[in-house]
Design goal:
The complex is a heterodimer of chains A (about 475) and B (about 475). Chain A is α/β, with parallel strands linked by helices. Chain A is built from 14 helices and 15 strands. Chain A is about 35% helix and about 15% strand. Chain B has about 475 residues and is α/β, with parallel strands linked by helices. Chain B has a 7-stranded mixed sheet, with helices on both faces. A 3-stranded antiparallel sheet of chain B has the order 10-12-11, with helices on one face. In chain B, strands 8-9 form a two-stranded antiparallel sheet.
């Protein structure tokens, strides 16, 4: 017997006799003999619950965890504090064992929570509308680009090299087969080169700077791989702020520039930073996207996290994914339903704005609870603590003389220094020997940035931990 | 009606607790230029911890999950979600691992991904899996991009069409369109399978592939699968297996042996991970040997001593997501497979199919059964008395809510009118199946005697029937309270 299968042998016999079948095997008679598996699956034998728990604990112990190793690694996933309340709420099995709320009368809890989530995302980003969540920040940004292409009828997207390298990779994967041209805009002093952006947007030869998406097929809109399109019409300018280096970008100028040429401005933003930084809605961005992990979601080795996607009102019918709207029931009471479903795959099939079906609802719920707990004051405090502590760590590292400045620009939670005395790998190794998870070696993604080290400092790091980190990074420790 | 959290807000209330700042750098006023700073606070709620807990507990009580009761939502495989797997996913040694840690410090995580690749390959008869796709539809997009990359790599440039049966899930054509393909729909034959003549007419030198769910959305196994595979392969196309219905076949037969080249599974269906109110899911993609080079980067490997992530894959379609997928979901599915073992997984399919056939037997005399065959893990009924009673399938679904059941999937597949698609899963008992059947039969009787009662259902839920037309016509998508300046 298996504890997740309640049928007893007697039950099975009763059911078979009711159906009029001689055996369970008979029920599979539609499956041709020659494709039936004539052996057991070659998998490890079943484990009892205690055996399983012990086995899984052993595997877990093969990992180094941020739970007992102060973490200075960020680069798109951050070790923020998660209040106890968050886990308790999302462990309510009425939430986590439910499906997408197709039947609103028995799904009001999730629907209202999503409505509250959408509201919080709009208030944080300053945008008009939000969907119910995306898989992660990278796919949210890729879908934002597709949305901009739909919204403008143009087919070229400009993306800053300050955007997370993995997000740019995902953007490329999504765009390549959709016939969308991607061009990257370089950096200067740690921020997007706005002069280059202007040159690319304006020049008739500007398009030549673009990298035509490769891998497209001939016969698809007459475009041939490798030949730059003559069309200079840019659908979207995508920038991230704080960018991958933690540096705050001049989003206002970039947005104005995008709009000057009729392009949409897509802002990839960090939700915690928005407690103190100018929100995308205020500088006129058309779409705001990002990864919501910092809002109450554990690192989880990269997932589940969730992506958020918000936009101005004009774009709402171009938006992918679930959206919850307010309505009334037959007695006039307020209630919530999935709405504007004519955008979605289950209604429109190949004409849908996206194929997304499952999203990351439970992670978005965690964010909703997190933002309720933190509230107006708490989130600001988290952001201020990240800001202050990262600046403290930055100046302490520079003061050791073994690190030098790379950028001279305002940053949030994360910064870059260059190690001058030894390779970054050696520093990270020594930190690990001292029970500390070090920063991210940038050279892998930015070939020019030898020995540059991306360090993140969240509100969880104490002064003592930072001091120890700096001491070991500078050559101390064991 | 529950208040919105914003309506409970009161200036000065807090639910958070943070340490004081222990460094003297100054704050945003000195560290961030004014033009980059936020001018007005984000209007987040100001509530106490008790408020937060009471609010979300109230909301949870207005929500129905598998733990509340039967959830026979067809094609969604709403089976029981084992609790021990939740505890495992919450271990610090998994939950607290940063995705960019050095491989040497994440050996346990990479091991899970690697072993899942091996186990899912065995379960499906494929050669290699990527665990990166975050959901079923995401897996479809990934698989289709792989199919495209394969043809392009061979210099076979004209293959821009994907064939999809008319019974397919909506995500199939939507994913194909997103991958840049044109969609050719083929009709089903009178037994509910792919019409072979229509398929022969549809394939050609422009065929990139066929997407198929088997058993299909009617809950029927397509007996012609080998012939279908031959037709598509002979035309130079590839076969894509939508694993949404894999719960019917695990341990019984394998897509790889049926002739499929690319497979996605839904770990949140077949492998028992919770649906979370809409997500997270996980949609791993498996391929046959010749398609391996095109899988997303990175892939997990084992060199005999250490687990590592392989990025050196020049023909890869690239990344489809950041990091390595919904690891926490993969982990729960891993624990499930280790719990069930080979024999247990086969019993999953056997009992899922037995339960569905029993329930179909109980209901067949009370509803129309458009395809009268032995079903697999689910079956589709049609409510054929609409003209006489004025009652629609939607009304019957709403009436079920009054008895504590989540309704079946309704109005899908599109090829059956007034459809009810019922998937009981193997985790439900005979008693539950009988109670559900009795209830559905009594509703069908009620529709004859007191149709108004059914048409105005539900009567015992938190809200009565909600006005979806109003919501779409005049969208209110965020809370607009009076404090907020427009």
């Amino acid at each position: 017997m298996y504890r997740y299968i309640p049928n007893t042998r007697e039950d099975q016999e009763k059911m078979l006799s009711a159906i009029g079948a001689g055996s369970i095997n008979e029920l599979f008679s539609d499956i041709p003999e020659d494709i039936r598996l004539d052996r057991d699956l070659q998998l490890p034998a079943a484990m009892s619950e205690p055996e399983l728990v012990s086995h899984m604990r052993t595997i877990a112990s093969e990992n180094v965890s941020t739970a007992d190793h102060p973490c200075f690694l960020g680069a798109g996933a951050y070790d923020h504090f998660i209040p106890s309340v968050v886990g308790h709420v999302i462990s309510r099995s009425e939430f986590y064992t439910s499906y997408t709320p197709y039947q609103p009368e028995i799904s009001q809890g999730m629907l209202q929570a999503i409505f509250e989530y959408q509201t919080m995302i709009c208030r944080l980003t300053g945008m008009d509308v939000s969907n119910a969540s995306m898989y992660d920040g990278a796919t949210a940004l890729a879908e934002a680009a597709l949305m901009a292409v739909r919204g403008t009828g143009r087919e070229k997207v400009l993306v800053s090299q300050g955007v997370h390298p993995q997000y740019r990779e995902v953007l490329r994967t999504y765009a390549v087969h959709a016939g969308i041209e991607i061009a990257e805009i370089g950096l200067t002093g740690g921020t997007t080169d706005l002069d280059e952006l202007r040159a690319v947007m304006s020049g008739p030869d500007g398009a030549a700077a673009g990298i035509k998406a490769t891998g497209g097929m001939s016969g698809e809109g007459g475009k041939t791989a490798g030949i730059p399109a003559r069309d200079t019409g840019v659908a979207a300018v995508i920038m991230q702020s704080p960018n991958f280096f933690g540096v705050i970008e001049d989003m206002e100028s970039a947005t104005a520039l995008a709009h000057e040429y009729g392009a949409l401005s897509v802002a990839c933003v960090d939700p915690v930073s928005l407690a103190i930084l100018q929100p995308p809605g205020e500088y006129g961005a058309d779409i705001a996207a990002g990864d919501g992990q910092p809002l109450g979601n554990p690192l989880n080795y990269g997932g589940p996290h969730f992506g958020f996607l918000a936009a101005n009102q004009k774009l709402v019918r171009k938006m992918p994914g679930r959206i919850v709207g307010q309505t009334t029931d037959s007695e006039g009471r307020r209630g919530f339903v999935l709405t504007l479903q004519a955008r979605e795959q289950h209604i429109r099939r190949e004409k849908a704005v996206s194929n997304i079906c499952s999203n990351q609802a439970l992670n978005a719920l965690a964010a909703t609870v997190y933002l309720s707990v933190m509230g107006r004051q708490g989130l600001k405090q988290v952001a201020e603590l990240c800001l202050s502590k990262s600046h403290y760590a930055y100046s302490k590292l520079l003061a050791t003389g073994r690190f030098e400045k790379v950028h001279d620009a305002p940053f949030f939670r994360e910064f870059v220094v260059r190690a001058v005395a030894e390779p970054v790998e050696a520093i990270n190794k020594r930190l690990l020997d001292n029970g500390i998870i070090g920063g991210f070696a940038l050279e892998r993604h930015y070939p020019g940035m030898e020995n540059c080290w991306l360090v993140a400092v969240t509100e969880k790091r104490t002064r003592q931990e930072i001091d120890k980190f700096v001491e070991v990074a500078a050559g101390g420790g064991c | 009606m529950a208040k919105l959290i914003f309506e409970m807000s009161k200036p000065g209330r807090t639910a958070y607790s943070l340490p004081p700042c222990d460094v003297e750098t100054g704050g945003s006023e000195v560290l961030i230029p004014e033009r980059y700073r936020r001018k007005k606070d984000a209007e987040l709620p100001e509530v106490s911890e008790t408020d937060v807990i009471r609010h979300f507990t109230e909301l949870s009580r207005m929500n129905h999950g598998v733990d509340n009761g039967f959830y026979p939502l067809g094609s969604c495989t709403m089976k029981y979600n084992p609790k021990v797997n939740e505890d495992i996913a919450a271990l610090d040694g998994f939950r607290g691992v940063h995705p960019l840690q050095d491989d040497g410090t994440a050996q346990g995580c990479i091991r899970i991904i690697y072993e899942m690749d091996r186990m899912l390959s065995e379960i499906t008869g494929m050669d290699r899996f990527s665990l990166q796709p975050a959901a079923g539809a995401h897996g479809e997009l990934t698989g289709l991009l792989i199919i495209r990359a394969y043809h392009v790599h061979r210099g076979d440039m004209g293959r821009n069409k994907i064939i999809v049966p008319d019974s397919a899930h909506g995500t199939n054509p939507a994913s194909a369109a997103m991958a840049g393909f044109e969609i050719i729909e083929v009709k089903s034959d009178e037994r509910g399978g792919v019409d072979l003549e229509a398929l022969k007419a549809a394939v050609g030198p422009d065929t990139a592939g066929l997407m198929l769910t088997n058993p299909n959305t009617l809950g029927l196994f397509d007996e012609n699968i080998k012939a279908i595979a031959d037709i598509v392969h002979e035309a130079g196309g590839l076969l894509y297996y939508d694993g949404a219905n894999a719960n019917a076949i695990i341990g019984i037969c394998r897509p790889g042996d049926m002739g499929f080249d690319v497979v996605h599974l839904n770990l949140h269906k077949t492998f028992s991970t919770p649906h979370g109110g809409g997500g997270p899911g996980s949609g791993p993609v498996g391929v046959k040997k010749e398609l391996e080079p095109f899988l997303p980067v990175p892939l997990a490997c084992f060199d005999g001593e250490r687990y590592l992530l392989d990025y050196d894959r020049p023909l890869s379609i690239g990344r489809v997501r950041s990091f390595y997928g919904n690891f926490g979901v993969i982990l729960r599915a891993y624990a499930y497979i280790r719990t069930m073992g080979p024999d247990g997984l086969r019993k999953v399919a056997e009992n899922a199919v037995l339960n569905a056939n029993y329930l179909m037997h109980r209901l067949r005399d009370h509803f129309d059964l458009p395809y009268d065959r032995t079903c697999m893990h689910e079956f589709v009924l049609s409510y054929g008395r609409q003209k006489e009673t004025g009652v629609r399938t939607l009304d019957i679904a709403k009436r079920l809510l009054d008895f504590g059941f989540h309704p079946p999937t309704v109005y899908f597949p599109l090829i059956v009118s007034e459809a009810l698609m019922i998937e009981p899963t193997e985790t439900e008992s005979l008693e539950t199946l009988d109670l559900f059947a009795d209830t559905l039969i009594s509703i069908a009787e009620e529709a004859e005697k007191d149709p108004e009662k059914v048409k105005t259902a539900p009567h015992r839920t938190y809200t009565s029937r909600l006005d979806e037309v109003k919501a779409a016509r005049n969208p209110v998508l965020v809370c607009m309270d009076e404090n907020r300046k427009e």
